[in-house]
Amino acid sequence: MQQMTISSINVNGLRAAAKKDPGFLQWLAATDADVVCLQEVRAEPEQLPAGVVAPEGWHVVLAPAAARGRAGVAVFSRAEPEAVRVGFGEAEFEDSGRYVEVDLGPVSVASLYLPSGEVGTERQEEKERFMEAFLPFLVKRRMEVEAQGRDLVVCGDWNIAHREADLKNWRGNLKNSGFLPMERAWLDRVLDEAGYVDVVRGLYPDQEGPYSWWSYRGRAFDNDTGWRIDYHMATPGLAERVVEGRVERYRDRAERWSDHAPVTVRYRLV
């Protein structure tokens, strides 16, 4: 394999996404991705039909949350993973369905679902505890994979818009979770201190968006009043070998099977 195409999407409930037509299954059948990272799966393996949990031609790793009906991440890959790691070593989040990582040849691919948060609530406190624990893990994990001569990309719903260009109505969200100064500063540290690269922003440095999430409320999708909160954060060596990337925005509301759209990037491996 000379190239690897990786797609990531928060499915907003895999059972619901798979029941829609068009929906997740139609998208999966049509995608040219080699790896698909899912977030907010919200299902145990036994709750999913065989066509979803074991689709022909795919190897599936599910990491559901211990709290049933919440969170959950997954990786679908055409090649069988050589290794699988669930969680990132923090006891509070070990079985929370927030992080799964697989080894596929020279690249480790992770699916991340960072807590969404809500200002003034326990959800925001949980989000901030997660962020505090996750940053040192990212630093350590980059050092480990690079020492092995390998690369890492952490794909998923990071639930933070980094810059003003990453959400349409940034002025109205300055005090809301997802665009708080401390959250944005934390993403600065992911890029500067941990040394990861925001691959899609690198491809579209001067563009507003491309957005990957739109509220179901009102006409947010029709007006493209979105947020860019779904990222491919790659180690520098892999980021230098990006061929192309895009957000697979739905053509219209009738085609939407999630409030997020797939973020797809093709990487050169050699």
UniProtKB/TrEMBL annotation:
Q: Which cofactor does it need?
A: Mg(2+); Mn(2+)
Q: What is this protein called?
A: Exodeoxyribonuclease-3
Site feature (Important for catalytic activity) residues = D230
Q: What is its EC number?
A: 3.1.11.2
User: Which residue windows are transmembrane per the record?
Assistant: none
Under the heading PANTHER family, the entry gives: EXODEOXYRIBONUCLEASE III
- Taxonomic classification, please? Bacteria, Bacillati, Actinomycetota, Actinomycetes, Streptosporangiales
Site Transition state stabilizer — annotated at N159
The molecular function GO annotations come to: double-stranded DNA 3'-5' DNA exonuclease activity; metal ion binding
Cofactor: how bound: Probably binds two magnesium or manganese ions per subunit.
Occurrences of domain Endonuclease/exonuclease/phosphatase (ranges): 8-260
The species this protein belongs to is Nocardiopsis algeriensis
Question: What residues does the record give for site: Interaction with DNA substrate?
Answer: H260
Q: Which family does it belong to?
A: Belongs to the DNA repair enzymes AP/ExoA family.
